[in-house]
Amino acid sequence: MATAEYESIPEVASDAVKSGRDVAVMKFGGTSVGDTEKIKEVARRLVRAREEGRRVVGVLSAMGDTTDELERLAHEISAQPHPREYDMLVSVGERISNALCAMAVHDLGHEAISLTGSQAGIVTDTVHGKAKIAEIRATRINEALDAGKIVLVAGFQGVSADSHDVTTLGRGGSDTTAVALAAALGADVCEIYTDVEGVFTADPRIVDGSLKLKTVSYEEMLEMAATGARVMMARSVEIARRYGVRLHVRASSSDSEGTWVAEEGDLVLEKAIVSGVTHDVSEAKATIVAVPDTPGVAARVFRVLADAGVNIDMIVQNVSADGATDISFTLPKSDLATAKPILDRLAADIGARASEVDDEIAKVSLVGAGMKSHPGVAADMFEALAEAGINIEIISTSSIRVSCVVRAADVERAVQAVHDKFRLYAEERARA
Amino acid sequence: MATAEYESIPEVASDAVKSGRDVAVMKFGGTSVGDTEKIKEVARRLVRAREEGRRVVGVLSAMGDTTDELERLAHEISAQPHPREYDMLVSVGERISNALCAMAVHDLGHEAISLTGSQAGIVTDTVHGKAKIAEIRATRINEALDAGKIVLVAGFQGVSADSHDVTTLGRGGSDTTAVALAAALGADVCEIYTDVEGVFTADPRIVDGSLKLKTVSYEEMLEMAATGARVMMARSVEIARRYGVRLHVRASSSDSEGTWVAEEGDLVLEKAIVSGVTHDVSEAKATIVAVPDTPGVAARVFRVLADAGVNIDMIVQNVSADGATDISFTLPKSDLATAKPILDRLAADIGARASEVDDEIAKVSLVGAGMKSHPGVAADMFEALAEAGINIEIISTSSIRVSCVVRAADVERAVQAVHDKFRLYAEERARA
Questions:
Q1: Is the pTM of this model over 0.90?
Q2: Least CB-CB distance to B106: which of A82, A96, A113?
Q3: For position A20, what pLDDT does the model report?
Q4: ipTM for the complex?
């Protein structure tokens, strides 16, 4: 399930909207700024938008593996780096790329200014490593835009309201910065430049015949993000939905149209049932075996795990005839080390037989707004997997999504089989 | 001549002094923080000072070649990187090392906080790349010290008073930060940790028998810095002198005493004539040949060069019998490209025969406060060079220094010869 985080971008948004001028927020991911040549290319794109008369805000991620390198240094120093200092450290990557891009814009004969999260007025709470944006004080950005400058904002970071410390926004943080800025500045579109052409019906690297979608609703994009589509994090899509910021996910290497993400009502989606097949191999499965079937047991299990900060995804529980049951759920592999001893203790405490973990699983999901009115979709999906000889271990559904846990070794075949089954719908959708 | 820059660190200093508590400002240069192991070593040293009950402020330079790497990126982007953005870029190196050190301190069981120049209240003018400190607003540092924390301040950088932009302080900037902080916080000593044991009577890498000095006066240290001793920049020494901050230059790799730099009156220097022999191969010589000897010609030459930002060091002019004269001076090799066309134009304008430049020179200097009362020192130096068969091209003196320009190829022999001549005095001094 999508664990969307809600961020408030209050009054400022309406203030900015009043200015009524055409603001372009353009975000460039790590591979789009991988070296100085690519940064110059980004600068040319920003300048082109400026020369079309737009007020241009660029948000660049850190170059290539800069952030990985900084993380490596931190872990050489400490097994558990101090969170405040960790944010101080890992936030420099964006400062580097944005300053370099500002230099490149200057060389193209335009004025530019790069701003840190703090200078850009990205005010957050104090939760280091996954801070939420509390407010955007856009005065300095607006002044620079009024002066005709191209503004570069270091993504992924902000400053805490109370302590004036540098904070970071967590994974996908530069998208969050860009979408929040688009909301605060009243931009009608936030362009997300990436290394793929847009949002696809399945990962083109593993599925033959996957297609680029022209449009996708916020709701579908959220489900796709939550089930493994890596093009955007659910959190940024959620902010876009709340503030009505249309997203345009597109390739930094070309000028062709990518995928628009917007309100369902604004898009021509009626005929399309399926928007995509996603997959996720980052999760593991845990099972507590032969749990006494008494009220409150499930609540107790998941409260203890939640208190330990373990993110639970799918949960299934089958009540058995003899009064004992198995509780299974999926969780990030990275949380296994934390969760395993807790589960062992829990199993003993509640009188279960044992706890088991399995990290050889994968999740395959089918997402589509049209599913709501087409009840046969789930059955079609199960059939596709059965025909491919793939066993389903867990099933979970929402109104616009069906997810199945399968063996990790089967994941590529599973995605291909499901995609083949729905290919006709997907082609229809891609043409919409 | 020493081109000391004056920075004012006003009221705050006296405020801080009132607190009357023992503040240790400890600065670590690039090689002392070359990798994460060395940063952990720095953390241990800071913790040791804290455990002695001192209020500890660390100032770390950027790790090894981080700043060079950032400069390389900037020059890949632009032949002339925009100064504001350049500062934004190159200031991140210190942020990295100081955040890493704060993590390491935490792991040793002490509280630490790393602060950017801006967070530390290092307020500067707006001259990007060589900003001067205008004020230190030490509130945040003092609060952290009051809370028992070890404070890490990113050296080399500040924030401009008017525009709130990141500024950098130029070469040796971390020393400047450390000394200015020591002044503002009322520290009675600023420890400069480096990769050598202290200040030597000559560069130990090229001179046999060079000795570590126990003490050296600000005045001598300034002359040594200005004539090629690389252990500290003149600017930081000048600030230390103005605010009476004693410096202790010492090795980060050992606990042995290094060299104390303080007021002449506070040191036992009476017997010592010579503090050291320095050399500098970074300069070139320029000559305007056969200049008509009319009033105002020299003023015109050096006004034009000053306006072009060329730093002139030694100047000699010999009036000749026939009413024409040669004007020679030294200037940084890096300014040659700017200076040459100016000199050619000047020579034509003023009716001189030609202008010549020569980048195969070196400057050898002898520095010592005791020289004031020992008029024979200069003659001894010329004699030493003559005995070694080394020709002197230009001579320049101050009350505590004699400098000679020689051929670059002769520099090592020249330094050795002069050092040998004064070795007896040097040994006396080292014992002081």
A1: no
A2: A82
A3: 44
A4: 0.77
